[in-house]
Design brief:
The complex is a heterodimer. Chain A is built from 13 helices and 13 strands. Chain A is an alpha/beta fold. Chain A has two domains: 126 residues, 3-Layer(aba) Sandwich (Rossmann fold); 204 residues, P-loop containing nucleotide triphosphate hydrolases (Rossmann fold, 3-Layer(aba) Sandwich), CATH 3.40.50.300. Helices cover 50% and strands 7% of the residues of chain B. In chain B, strands 3-4-5-6-7 form a five-stranded parallel β-sheet. Chain B has a four-stranded parallel β-sheet with strand order 8-9-10-11. Chain B has a two-stranded antiparallel ribbon with strand order 1-2. In chain B, helix 16 links the parallel strand 10 and strand 11. The chains are: A alpha/beta, B alpha/beta. Chains A and B meet through helix 1 and helix 3 of A and helix 7 and helix 20 of B.
């Protein structure tokens, strides 16, 4: 079995028309396609960077606010310039893209333009037919990020074919491998605000460190039929930066919040000269224990929502025993104080030096997030 | 219980009150007689008019009832036009032409002649409180001078100049025309505005302080900045004394942006703070300005059901009222300066969607927020549905828009925009704009549907059934929002967004499955794909470059002043006081993008919701 098709979808800069793309995304994932959704109001450079890092087969752009001839052409050109022209571009814009426009756009290297009235079925068929085949021989990577991205694809593909043994350079003992990055794991229930919190930490990293780089390995669940909507990038406004390498992975049928290929991908990232590698799990349940003791993760952060239910529920959350730092996010909610007290008591039972921090990640310049950033970047912890 | 929960209660209580009055009218003989007397009085005072064919008609149509209980149900449950709870209309008379006197008609011996001379002379007519044409056409293209030319073209035959401005993408997102990657978007879909100088060009030749002029600006995320630029432009042309005379509307609806339209530039809370800052200023200094247009249009266009559109618009409105009130602005001061904007499509709900909205608003404002009569009015601008228009066999769009116009006027909208048939492909071209505008004139002036009689099409059993059903569904939506902790919490939990997205998905699926017939698409489709020949409006590269160059010149000229103004702005924004006065100063010397960027440094950027 081969890997699902990975494509990136986005809406151009200065355009908030996301109704069509939302519908199309859902249709794609129902038909086994993994969609990395970049969101609306996205610049050419954000789109191309993301496409290369995610190593997608194609970029689908939904444009309703005009300027499509220029925008699509700029995406194609920048891909070419970056040596990534094996990533194809298609798109549509209802009636705003005329047949004449489409002809010009195709002349400039756009593979397909869908007009108003195209059924979702036709689009799905197009993606399957055009991008379902194995890729031919690819040109030599032009950048380190491109090479890394392809390496991660190779790992994912090998797992999809269940041929782990054929994997070149597979690391059998991650701890012994040459490590260049500090790896921080984020986990916690869905909706606790992990993604926002990570994005805010990235912002602080970029502001305070003028040269360093950071990598993010983010996970979203695969749905029945093996597609997945990988949407973290859409809300991570600060992480769309040349100094951030982000990769979105679908869990591809594995329970526990990670993908079968996660460990190898993470190892590869940890060896790739990033100052920090952040790994974010899918929203997890009480029993989840995504990061093993003695694994590759140096520091684990559990992000909680104050609304976890009764105090009894806390006893069942395994990660509360294992996490180095527990964050109560959304601490502006009414229940946050109670949550803090209850979690504090729960942590005291463990008799470890676990830290408990309250944050409001959605708030700009939140002091709680500052504190968390300080803790994470202090090596001795 | 949040205020929205209390609104639900107030509507339920009011409905109970109406039933009590009905019962009382039937059991309390004295009360019944009083009502009957009032009813007879009201009917006796209705003037009669004549149609051009000589048919006498009452200026106001009332139901044929003479039983006190039914009279009570009508007077309390619906209210006469212009009377609480304003189901029928916000004003006593709308769209009506002047009364054709019966005598003068008889003198012409039965020959029908409308009195063109008298009307043409503009004889003062005290019987028509709303002297303005309800037509307000949305427009914006290329650079400020191009849109200005279009504005002059659109208003050349109108007594009053009501301009409605569409902005291009970069402006809507608060960024400059020289920003990375926006070339190609400059002047597309609306006018490019970067500086106060563009704003001066945009309304050149119009008398901004005149009582016959009003400007509407469709922009929300950067609305306070654009508002400041408009004021700065007006001051440049007419001096500081013009400020209190400025008339117009700025959209400034943050909630619907977050729920549907995605043009938010700051996080929700600072966005709401800057909005309130602006409302505080305009309420005090610009009493004729509408500082917010609470908009369901974009919610509808993003795919919501009609009920969701009405419910979210109303609940957003009540949330703003609570917020402005919380700032200490008296409800009777800002309440009359709120206006609403709805979409009108072809679904059955539109038969009464605005009527029901008007009633719920009035009851909530009076009984929950203690508003006086002027602040109870749900003043409505309607636009026909853009989503209902399709590219295939696009001339059918004229018929769609015409049907939607009938529905909009049946709901007694205070003003209306009719879409151009070519809208699925492009910024409307003059030929189709003209047809769209004429559609309204044909309906209101040529046809006798609205000009002779108020409530001509109101009150059918079908309409009543829709009203009951729509009201119940809106209240259900309110209850759900209330359960989530009110509008702001629901927004933060993405409740409205997901509801809208689900509805959009269902709509597309219905078209695909053929359950929702669309002529020319899934019904009666011509075998050959028709390639429409429309003249496209696109901004030439040279014009885009001109805008970029002008901006560079402006920035260079004002570099030092801009720095000082931005520093001051950042300082005020970082503190808690009202930023609007500082924004006014900054707008004189800074570009839109400079101001947005600096404010984002202080309060952060909006994090999109997906």
């Amino acid at each position: 079995m081969s890997s699902p098709i990975r494509i990136l979808t986005a809406v151009p800069i200065c355009d908030g028309h996301d109704s069509a793309i939302n519908t199309i995304n859902l249709e794609f994932i129902r038909h086994g396609i993994e969609v990395i959704y970049l969101g609306y109001h996205r610049s050419v450079s954000d789109i191309v960077r993301a496409a290369i890092q995610e190593d997608v087969r194609a970029i689908g752009i939904s444009s309703y606010n005009g300027g499509h001839i220029e925008f699509f052409a700029e995406v194609v050109n920048l891909l070419r310039k970056k040596g990534a022209d094996d990533i194809k571009v298609f798109g549509g814009g209802g009636g705003t893209i005329t047949h004449d426009d489409a002809a010009i756009m195709k002349g400039k290297g756009v593979e397909e333009v869908f007009f108003a009235g195209t059924s979702l079925e036709e689009m799905v068929k197009f993606v399957h037919q055009r991008y379902g085949k194995l890729r031919g021989k690819r040109p030599r990577p032009k950048s380190g990020d491109q090479e890394l991205a392809r390496g991660l694809s190779a790992i994912e593909d090998a797992y999809a074919k269940r041929k782990r043994s054929t994997l070149k350079g597979r690391i059998r003992n991650p701890q012994s491998a040459i490590r260049t990055s500090r790896v921080i794991g984020f986990t916690g229930p869905g909706g606790a605000g992990k993604t926002t919190l990570i994005d805010e930490l990235v912002l602080r990293f970029l502001n305070r460190n003028s040269k360093g780089r950071i990598a993010i390995l983010s996970h979203d669940p695969s749905v029945v039929g093996e597609g997945a909507l990988l949407g973290d990038r859409a809300t991570m406004i600060n992480s769309q930066d040349d100094r951030v390498f982000m990769r979105s992975m679908a869990t591809r049928g594995q329970a526990g919040g990670l993908s079968p290929a996660t460990r190898d991908c993470l190892t590869r990232l940890a060896q790739s000269n990033f100052d920090y590698v952040i790994i974010e799990t899918v929203g997890t349940g009480q029993e989840a224990m995504p990061f093993q003791k003695n694994g590759i993760v140096d520091l684990t952060v559990l992000v909680m929502n104050p609304d976890y239910g009764s105090r009894l529920q806390l006893q069942k959350i395994v990660m509360l025993d294992l996490a180095d730092i527990v964050v109560v996010n959304k601490s502006d909610l009414q229940r946050a104080r109670t949550a803090h007290t209850e979690i504090e008591q729960r942590l005291e039972q463990n008799r470890r030096s676990q830290r408990l921090i309250d944050t409001v990640a959605k708030r700009h310049r939140d002091p709680g997030v500052d504190k968390l950033f300080g803790l994470i970047t202090r090596k001795e912890l | 219980m949040s205020k929205l929960g209390r609104v639900v209660e107030s509507v339920e209580n009011y409905n109970k009150f109406v039933l009590d009055q009905v019962k009382r009218a039937r059991t309390d003989e004295k009360f019944g007689r009083e009502l009957l007397g009032r009813w007879i009085d009201i009917k006796a005072k209705i003037p009669t008019t004549r149609t051009p064919t000589g048919l006498p008609l009452p200026r106001l149509a009332l139901p044929e009832i003479d039983e006190p209980g039914e009279i009570a149900r009508y007077l309390y449950g619906e209210g006469l036009p212009g009377e609480f709870p304003y189901l029928n209309a916000a004003y006593r008379e709308m769209y009506l032409e002047s009364v054709r006197e019966i005598e003068s008609f008889e003198k012409t011996n039965g020959r029908t002649r409308p009195e063109p001379a008298r009307r043409g002379e503009g004889a003062p007519d005290k019987k028509i409180p709303q002297a303005e044409e309800p037509t307000r056409l949305f427009s914006g293209l290329m650079l400020a001078e191009d849109t200005n030319e279009r504005f002059h073209y659109l208003t050349r035959h109108q007594r009053t100049h009501r301009l409605s401005t569409a902005f291009d993408g970069p402006t809507l997102y608060g960024i400059d025309s020289d920003a990375d990657g926006v070339f190609g978007k400059i002047g597309e879909g609306g006018v490019a505005i970067d500086t106060v100088e563009d704003m001066v060009r945009l309304y050149d030749g119009f008398d901004l302080g005149s009582p016959n002029f009003s400007a509407s600006m469709t922009i929300s995320g950067p609305a306070p900045i654009i508002m400041a630029m408009y004021i700065a432009a007006a001051k440049r042309r007419f001096g500081p004394k013009v400020v209190p005379k400025l008339r117009g509307t700025i959209q400034a609806d943050i909630f619907k942006e977050v729920q549907a339209q995605n043009e938010t530039i700051f996080p929700i809370e600072p966005s709401l703070r800057f909005l309130t800052d602006m409302v505080e200023f305009t309420t005090r200094e610009m009493p004729r300005w509408y500082p917010i247009s609470i908009s369901g249009y974009h919610i509808g266009e993003a795919g919501s059901t009609p009920v969701q559109q009405a419910a979210y618009t109303l609940s957003n409105g009540f949330a703003y009222v609570e917020m402005f009130g919380g700032r200490g602005i008296p409800v009777d001061q800002f309440g009359p300066r709120l206006s609403f904007f709805l979409d009108c499509g072809l679904d059955a709900e539109y038969i009464a969607l605005a009527r029901v909205s008007r009633r719920i608003w009035a009851i909530g404002m009076r009984d929950v927020f203690g508003a006086g009569p002027k602040a109870q009015l749900y003043k409505l601008h309607t636009q026909t549905s853009g989503r209902s228009l399709i590219a295939a066999e696009f001339k059918n769009n004229l018929t769609r828009t015409a049907a939607e116009l009938v529905l909009a006027y049946m709901n007694a909208t205070n003003s209306c925009h009719s879409n151009s048939a070519d809208e699925p492909f492009t910024t409307p071209t003059e030929e189709w704009i003209r047809l769209a505008a004429h559609g309204q004139a044909i309906l209101l002036e040529e046809s006798g549907i609205f000009k002779h009689t108020m409530n001509m099409l109101s009150g059918s059993p079908g309409m009543k059934a829709v009203e009951r059903s729509v009201e119940a569904a809106i209240l259900d939506e309110f209850r759900e929002i209330e359960r989530l902790g009110g509008v702001l919490s629901a927004v933060e939990e993405r409740y409205q967004r997901s509801q809208i997205q689900n509805a959009a998905h269902r709509y597309e699926q219905q078209i695909y499955d053929g359950i929702r017939p669309i002529v020319g698409l899934n019904r009666y489709r011509d075998g050959d794909e028709e390639i429409p020949e429309v003249k496209l409006v696109r901004t030439p590269r040279s014009k885009q470059q001109l805008q970029v160059d002008r901006l560079a010149k402006f920035k260079k000229k004002n570099a030092e002043k801009a720095k000082r103004a931005l520093d001051k702005l950042a300082e005020v924004a970082d503190g808690g006081e009202n930023v609007f006065p500082t924004l006014l100063d900054a707008a004189e010397v800074c570009s839109l993008g400079q101001i947005t960027g600096r404010l984002q440094e202080v309060v952060g950027r909006f994090r999109p919701m997906v």
